[in-house]
Design brief:
It is a single chain. This protein has 2 domains: 96 residues, Double Stranded RNA Binding Domain, CATH 3.30.160.70; 83 residues, Arc Repressor Mutant, subunit A. The model has no long low-confidence stretch (mean pLDDT 87). The strands form 3 sheets. A 4-stranded mixed beta sheet has the order 4-3-2-5. The protein is an alpha/beta fold. α4 packs across α5. It is 44% helix and 17% strand.
Length: 207
């Protein structure tokens, strides 16, 4: 499953916000009628930062508390992620940023669960091999952390570097994925085997 992106210049007249409580704290979410636009990581001023960001990027939109289908799906999928039951998100996204930032975020989306890449590797994957520092700044501007997993991007020597939610949260997310990766891999292998036997029942009857 992969996230689907809408053009950032898609007209927006209404924004809806909600929150979900997670093992790392309360996460605030913002969406249009159809697409997730913002994930605000836990913090003392998270709700204020969410409103400031929405006002900067959607000044003409009416912002109200409410649940849209995409907010409901995002809440469910975040719950599954934190329970160690989901490795990738399947959501409609609107990535609000410059063309370069969006290129970087799309490269980050492809970093697998439980793995990590360096900023240099992300730069190369985004087709901008010399823009390592700019890639780092784009990470800091990521409007959809966790969903676009910038916590999986580390320094060239593997060291943890800056993260909007703080290095403690970044370390927690990486450790969480490392812990659940074997279980998810086993579950996926089992699902593929069951699917194959369903599609080709003669294989099971011949055994």
């Amino acid at each position: 499953m992969t996230n689907r992106s809408l053009p950032k210049d898609t007209p927006v007249t209404r924004i809806f916000t909600s929150f979900t409580d997670t093992p790392v704290g309360r996460i605030y979410l913002g969406s249009t009628d159809t697409s997730l636009v913002r994930v605000e990581l836990p913090g003392d001023n998270a709700s204020i930062l969410m409103n400031v960001w929405l006002a900067m990027h959607f000044a003409q939109a009416k912002v109200s508390r409410g649940i849209t289908p995409v907010l409901r799906r995002a809440t469910e999928q975040l719950s599954e992620y934190f329970a160690g039951e989901r490795a990738a998100f399947d959501l409609s996204l609107m990535m609000v940023g410059t063309d370069f930032q969006v290129e970087v975020w799309k490269a980050v989306e492809k970093v697998p669960y439980g793995h990590h890449l360096s900023y240099g590797e992300i730069s190369r994957n985004a087709g901008r091999p010399k823009a390592v520092r700019a890639t780092g700044r784009a990470q800091g501007a990521n409007p959809l952390p966790i969903v676009i997993p910038c916590h999986r991007v580390v320094g060239a020597n593997g060291a943890l570097t800056g993260y909007a939610g703080g290095l403690e949260l970044k370390s927690w997310l990486l450790g969480h994925e490392e812990r659940f990766l074997p279980l998810l891999q086993k579950r996926t292998a089992g699902w593929k085997l069951a699917k194959g036997l369903t599609e080709h029942p003669e294989q099971s009857s011949n055994n």
